[in-house]
Request: fold
Amino acid sequence: MADIQLTDLVKSYGPTEVLHHVAGDIKDGEFIVIVGPSGCGKSTLLRMVAGLESVTSGEIAIGGRRVNELEPSARDIAMVFQNYALYPHMSVRQNMAYGLKIRKLPKDEINRRVEEAAEILEIKQYLDRKPRQLSGGQRQRVAMGRAIVRDPQVFLFDEPLSNLDAKLRVQMRLEIRKLQQRLGVTSIYVTHDQVEAMTLGDRLMVLNGGYVEQFGTPIELYDRPASVFVAGFIGSPSMNFLPVEVSGSQAALPGGGALSVVSAHSGTATLGLRPEHLNEDENGPIAIEVDMLEQLGANTLIHGRLHGTEHSITASVPGHAHDGIGSIRRFSASPDLTHLFDTGSGKRLEI
Amino acid sequence: MLKRVHFPTSALPYLLVAPQILITLVFFIWPASQAMYQSFLIEDAFGLGTEFVWFENFQILATDHHYLASFQRTAVFSLLVAALSMGFALILAGFAQRVVRGAMFYRTLLIWPYAVAPVLAGALWVFMFNPTLGIFPYFLEFAGITWNHYLSGPQAMGLVILAAAWKQVAYNFLFYLAAMQSIPNSVIEAAAIDGAGPARRFWTIIFPLISPTTFFLLVINMVYAFFETFGIIHAVTQGGPGTSTTILVYKVFNDGFVGLDLGGSAAQSVVLMVLVIAMTVVQFRFVERKVAY
Amino acid sequence: MVEHRPLTAFLTHLVLILGVFAIALPVWITFVASTHDELRMNQAPLPLWPGEYFLENMKQTLFGSGLSGTEQAPVWLMLLNSLAMALMISTGKIAISLLSAFAIVYFKFPFRMGFFWMIFITLMLPVEVRILPTFEVVANLGMLNSYWGLSIPLIASATATFMFRQVFLTVPDELLESARIDGAGPLRFFFDILLPLSRTNIAALFVILFIFGWNQYLWPLLITTDTSMTTIVMSIKQMLEAAEQSPQWNIIMTTALLAMIPPVFVVIAMQKLFVQGLTETDK
Reply:
């Protein structure tokens, strides 16, 4: 068990800097998810922690020990790869035992650990099979087993579920979470899937273009997104953004009407409204001209444009809806569920 | 070309390439540069001294009608070997490809001559064509043809071409069959529905589609005929009668080892090296293009 | 086949069977020659059907004094020499190519590309075009009339190195990363992961190289003068020369048969590996 400190981490390939001054403290036993669109540097960051990529500047410390110069095997970590990286010529048992054999653990100790991990992951009956004889989900479990037997200080997961089908992904997600809670091992998990990130992580690090946009709990990210990027990335369907003119605690909407907000700011800003925070209100200031309905059963998504403008906007209403195309629906929003961002920098405007 | 992740730099990679590099240096690069150096030298008549003469050896070669004749002979020889073995292989593969069950059986029966050394192929054929005892001269006599490749240049050439082509059929057959089997069945079926019969399908659909293989095999067969047939010539005809089967590789050997004309032989070696390099480049170009498709 | 006409099917098989006969004819004649006695082999026309002297010819060829009037090593020794040479060439080529391909793919070191090109050059220099100077080098190193001289100059191989490089490049990067996290160093990774993964490629290449090694002709001819170092393939030449004086075709053809049996057997017994090896090395 160990905590991890990332201090002012920079990664460059030649003259191109791909990670910019990343910092963050990860507490012992915490489950951290690094999330962001492809190319944001999240895998690079993980691989730096693993020791598979060199550190250009800054420091990585695991358990208070600087590991920048240590070989991957000396960092006391285990990694689960996207394509599992199982050794195809070895049986499941040999795959799991390989690292322990190299560390020269006694045979019965190796056997005990492999059996134990296989028990936890319910793969005991496959121990003598080769990876190619297993299904995707089973391979995934073996990859996890290989990490568990090493009894490491840190688990690293590099998009481990992206090769599974949707149903299996949901199931494995739960299992990974349960397993991590049971073992209590500090974990870093990389994904581009925000739902996966929200459900798994104790805290989420949102990366964009090599910068940390926000580092916080899922609820913090949802309730108080630090930037337009985080606001748009977290939550489904995505947040609506409208250019507004704020004065006093009123935000003037394009196309007329005004919405109460909680802000001391005045001037131009970007207003963020989550579709699920729009309440039907016949006298509300937000008029949506309906373009299309998405019936999800429990609720309905109304896609349209802010009446009289070209700004698209989506609202989520409970139950079914039968609005005709072109009809108009009005909504209002509670001031404490509105978000204001600086139009230039995209940063959240705090009160 | 290279993995994303490497092992840390150490002395190890140098140790790993050392054996290969050492052997390459000692037995390839050094002798080849020796050959190149010697090609600029001429020994005097008594073998007492040598003189550095720049390109004189090459000039001598360019005007030596023996050498030019050998060049021409080699071209004819390799083209005929390639044409004969590729044609035969193409026909067999064309029929084998039509057999759904049993294609692999025929393959087994047709590919083994690849394993027969060229010199043995020569021995087998020279025995069958032995002027006094052989099977073929015996039957040819009935057709009014007297066979004696010890006396007739064209007959000697024909014999080495047959022997060289025989051994190479296996290789060509294998590649042709593989190429034909990789053509999707639906293409053939579509042609059949369009009303094309088997022969027409072969010439208008299959043959054009395997043209990259034909080109590839042409280069491979030329290289084979240029260099690997040395054993056949050496064992069967010794370049004779006269010089009627003296192809370039045999001439390099003969002028160097037997005639002891070091400079001239070295110059011939250099010319051959240039030819190999040219063929290798053509072959690689081809492979690259195939990858791009 | 698209059509299901019995006549075309019959024709197809007929052509193929004729083809097989045409290809097999020289070897059949050879086999027949190895089953008759010397007397019968000196009367034209030669027989087309096997006789009864096969075992006798085999015995005389393998363990007898060989052709009368020639100074030759016994054929069993030649077979042994050929086997030693073929095995040394094939294992040697595979070993040094595996090592250099491993270095070139998995390490980043100064002159890496220089080494790569140096190996590439060997592709362009067949023995035949540099015979004299190579012979001199081997002579100066005192390697004439030795197994080392027979095999070592032939074991540098660009094709094998390229093939292994290709194989290694298809091994997923994650396996290396995973092995590094498991604590495997370069050599451990090489022996535990890379070698087992390239097993069939190694076997396929071995088949091709064994044939290549066994069939060497010019090189052994040049560097062995001692009859006890003669290989079976090069002995054919001397036998053919001797045949002009004493035509013991039954013995000569038995020797030829013995010389081709091992590589032909390898091709037929390991057909799948042979085909794989042939197509891989030429791409």
In short: Chain C has 14 helices and no strands. Chain C has a mean pLDDT of 84. The two ends of chain C are 29 Å apart (CA to CA).
